Every structure is written in structure tokens, then in C-alpha cells.
Amino acid sequence: MGKRERQKRWVGRLMLPSMALAVVLSCMVGHVEASDERQQLVATFHVHSTASTGDMTVEALATRAEQLGLDVLILTDNFSLQYEYGLWPLRGILKQRVSAPSLLDYGIERYLDEIAAAQRRHPALIIVPGVEVAPYYYWTGSLPERTLTMHNAQRNLLVLGLTKPEDYRSLPASGNPASYNFDWQVAVNGAPILLVLPAVWLWRPFRPVADRRSPQRMVSVVLIVLAVALVANAWPLSQPAFSSYDAGLGYRPYQALIDDVKAKGGLSFWSMTEARDFHEYGFGPLGAFIVKTEAHPESLLQTTGYTGFGGLYQDGRTINKPGELWDRLLQLPIDEQRPAPVLIGELAFHGLKDAGKDLHRLVTVLSVKERTVPAVLEALRAGRAYAVGEGDHHVQLRLDEFRVFCQGGARFASMGDRLDPVGARDLMVRLSISAADHGRHPVKVRLIRSGQVVAQLAGETPYLVDWPDSTMPTVERTTYRVEITGSGELLSNPIFVGK
Q1: Which pTM was predicted?
Q2: Three-state SS at 37
Q3: Rounded Cα gap, residues 149 and 287, in angstroms
Q4: Are residues 39 and 66 in the same domain?
Q5: Does residue 344 lie in a domain region?
Q6: Residue 234's pLDDT band (boundaries 50, 70, 90)?
Q7: Per-residue confidence band for 16, with pLDDT thresholds at 50, 70 and 90
Q8: Cα 293 vs. chain centroid, distance in angstroms?
Q9: Are residues 272 and 367 in the same domain?
Q10: What average pLDDT is seen over the chain?
Q11: Sign of the CA dihedral 62, 103, 243, 337?
Q12: Residues 143 and 291 grouped into a single domain
């Protein structure tokens, strides 16, 4: 038997009595952690079907998810993909409109009915309906100067947890007429119809019939044509809350969507905030225009009330590195307006034609009490989850245990939970890591405390370790999270210690 194997068995023998002692002491002090009763569900997050821009039907996706052994399929089809540009001053008439398949065209009820039908045919799989929403885009530049640019068409939020069709239909988003405002602007837009009144008065038969080309009647015709043109230009008389010709709105449209979703009991996640998009399209004889979305990690700081963000996806990322934006946000005071942002794994799956993508290649593992949609949503809301990407290694890691103990194991907390040490200084972090294939794979572990890497460990799966934290600073609140690489990638959500 090799030295490493003897060490593992020795650690294992040490851990079993300590775990038993922790349970006994926990019962003695009346502290039984709810996470003991939880199970892990493997979810694929951010998936498109043929209801919008995907290549597979909801039924085909459900079948594929079951074949791959997934527990949860989270659908996020595009809510609206309708864009238009109009030439001033008659933007309502002299305009070009383009669109791609989206739920507003497909039908919200039809979409939800298909998901419900697929759920009945696949009872072992949990299917969660959702949408991907870009609430706002805006134009800059001009066609004649070949600088016309549409900004932020891919600045998206993923929305889950809405249960009624009307909750979706009223989402405040560009291209959704159901969310347009009916206010004083409606009266202004409809005011040109009043030009018909003087037109009728001028047309009245106070002159001989033969004099049909009188100046009064010519003016009457002009007024009628002008009234119709101006009303058509302003149609529909209601207007979106945020104009696509106003480049100075900042994050107001996104905050409006987040607030609307929150008021309806839903969850919202910022999608791929560091991904970029740049394309150039022809505009016929008028030339070309640019579609551009820049990286926007600042969105996590500029908005409040959202549930979380895509922190692991197939693109470059920096905000989840130790000490960067996510860690700084985790150190801010937590309240209802600014909860701790939850990290998820985000696949952005459109079909099997995408090279290197399948439903199981990047997942979010949830810790739940029961296999239901409400339990899945609650785990996401609370941050009882970690993200896993197979990467080029094709190894899917599992975080079987991640806890922080104190008082000799009498008190502990898991991901998404808070541990009050009650003045105790004997904190200990327990990690248990395995692989989905139960094989032996190398792993490198970084334990991150409040943005600082406090331990760097290495081994191979199955990997077990108890790490005592003897240098915990005397602050009111501390966060612990782990980053695991070496065979794929795993990012956990934090455990909070302190008040």
C-alpha cells in the first residue's frame, strides 16, 4: 500500500468518528442542520428550444436530459427578438423591422402547455420554464455616415419562477407591446386626429359643387392626410417605457425588469456579463449597421434585487476570481434590496450542432429537500448550489460535502447558510470531492475566505480534508467558498460566518 493511500485511509478513519461526534453534539445543543436532509440534483441551466432559437423541441430536450442522467432541465427561451429602426422625424412610418423566433410569436400559453405535457411524460425529470429577456436596446450613429449601431441586444437576464401566462406577457421589455405605457403621451400621440375637425369644417358645402378645387377644400385634404400620417407615425399610441432612441437610460430598464419579476415572485439572473457580441449586417440600399454588446460586469453593482448571475460558462470570466467583483459584493451588507448574488453555471444551449456542447457539459448542482420545482427555485434563491464544467477533461466533479464547523463540530453551516459561531474561534472547513464517474482524477483546491485564498490543496478524487482555520480575522462577517480545478472546473457558492 502506497503512502498516499495510507494517508487517505487514515484521514477517513479520523473523519468518521468526528462526524458522529458532530451529530451527537448537534442534537445535544438542539442544532440539527437542515442540509442533512438534502439531496443533490444536477441541473442544466439556460437552454433554448424550438419555441425560440433552439434546434430541439421541448420533448426532445427532455428525452436527451434523461438519457444523460440529468435531474433538472431549466428552459430559458428568448422572450422577444423584435427590433426596429426608424428615420426621424417619421420613425413610425419610415422604419425597418427585423425579428427572430421568440415566445411572443410562438405563444406563451402554447409554450407553457408544451412544458407541462413534457413534464407528464417525463415524471423523473424536473422541467422549469423560464425566459431570456433583453429589456432594452438603443441606437447611436447614422446610416448615411455608416455609423449606425444597435447596442445591448445581448444584455440579457434569465427569468424563472413565473407561473401564470399574464406574468410573462406583461414583462417590461423592448418589443413587447403588452408592457407599453398608457399615459399623457397617448394623448399627445393621438392629438393630430383633432386636425380632422377643421378639415370637416372647411369641406362643408357652403360653396357651389362645381368649385371642388377651392383653397378651403385643398387645405381640408391636406389636414386629413396630415392627421392620418401623424397618427400612423405614432401608432401604437401607447409607447414603450424606455425609448430605443434614448442612449442615456443606463440600467433603469434592467432594474425595472428585475423589480417586476421580483414583485411577481420570480427569480432573475444576469446572463454572461463578460461575454461580447459584435456583428455587421446589411441594410439593403441604405448601407449597413452594427450590432454590438460590450461586456457589462458592472451590471451586478449597478442593479439590485436580482437573484444571481452566470459565473461559469464557456467564455472568459474574471468577476469570480478571488478578490474580484463577486467577492466584493459578498462583503456588502445583505438585505432585501441587495441579497448576496448567487453563482450559477450557464450553458447557453441551442442544439447539438454547437461544437463541444451537450446538456451535461456544464451544470448547476442544487441541494434540495425534495424533487419539486418550488424546491429547485428555493435552492437557487438561497444559493444552495455549485457550478460544474467538464471542460476538455470530460470529468464532472461533485462537491459531496462543504461545511464550516465550530465549537468542536456542534455547530455548522453549508452553502447558502449562515453560521453564528457565538464567539467561537475553532472554525474548521470540511471538503469532500468526488467525480461523477467514481474515478480517480487530479484536483486542485483553492479555499477562498472573504476574497483571499487562504489554502491551496491538491490530491485526487475521492478527496477528503478537514482544514482548521486558525487565522480567521475578527470581523463581523466572513465568507468561505471553494474553487476546484485540475479535472474540469467547480465553483461553489459561499458559506457565511458571522452576523
Answers
A1: 0.84
A2: helix
A3: 12
A4: yes
A5: yes
A6: low
A7: very low
A8: 16
A9: yes
A10: 84
A11: negative
A12: yes
